[in-house]
């Protein structure tokens, strides 16, 4: 394939120096420009530091392992390829088109005795739909897609029976709703191998069906339902398409809103209450007291009761190392998970936590008024 003079210069310089920053300095260009041209060279099979195998246009290389002989020549190479973003967009668009407007407006009728000023929050953390676990192996309960879907629906159904007639319901999925984001059955960030039940496409069907039914149930209880979906370390991509799919599904339901904030942490205010959700991985618990007021300064300044809900660790936690101090003005809490243990969790000794989901009731002026537990 033909190369531009600039691509030849970058190829030769990178073959010699093996460092993008050094190439940028030598040629007097930015590292971003070097990175971009190297990606093009690799796709064209013109990267001498790899094999000559051409990467298809619809894929990109995220990882490679190269075997060299004693003189530095490439013997063979193992490429890990994933779909380009454009293909992911097409996948999401197809899903949205399939479900667009499928949910009909519910038969909700304004109750005569709606609890004015109340918000009922249901937190579904770490459902891990798609995880496969054997109780004989983990000394916990079995787990598969059917069990995960039933647990989620049963938890929401139970909490809705306790909700009364709130003015608003928030249904918060705080990450790792789907166990595996790809057909590789690994976590993208760490590369951990995952025990997955059934095929990737069927797991997606279970996720959409479970979440849709939960939203549909909530839409029959309150005149205003907001759905919050947070990305976890297992479902970075799934959380993105799930937001858009649910938005398409409930596009004809006036009392259902899908929170489309793109940030890692999502927040709403309800009177004097600030409610924030995130998954909880990657940041030390002690830092949240500084992060939340800095990230949501207007919301922080306009409220007096502030709550951060997280999952990830698969058990309830409001003690050290989490700082819960009324003087700092933020209540930080990790909530319980719905999922059973998998083999890795059991082998690592993370045992004994109660499985379930929690719900919380807030008043616009009085703050948190009650908490409800659903234990598996």
Structural features:
alpha/beta; 2 domains; six-stranded mixed sheet; 22% strand; Purple Acid Phosphatase, chain A, domain 2; single chain; 376 residues; 33% helix
Task: Note down, in words, how this protein is organized.
This protein is 33% helix and 22% strand. The protein has two domains: 79 residues, no CATH class; 291 residues, Purple Acid Phosphatase, chain A, domain 2 (4-Layer Sandwich). With 376 residues, the protein is an alpha/beta fold. The protein has eleven helices and twelve strands. Helix 8 links the parallel strand 5 and strand 6. About 2% of the residues have low confidence. The N and C termini lie far apart (60 Å). The strands form three sheets. Strands 6-5-4-3-11-12 form a six-stranded mixed beta sheet. Strands 7-8-9-10 form a four-stranded mixed beta sheet, with helices on one face. Strands 1-2 form a two-stranded antiparallel ribbon.
Task: Summarize the entry for a quick read.
By secondary structure, the protein is α/β, with parallel strands linked by helices. Helix content is 33%, strand content 22%. The N and C termini lie far apart (60 Å).
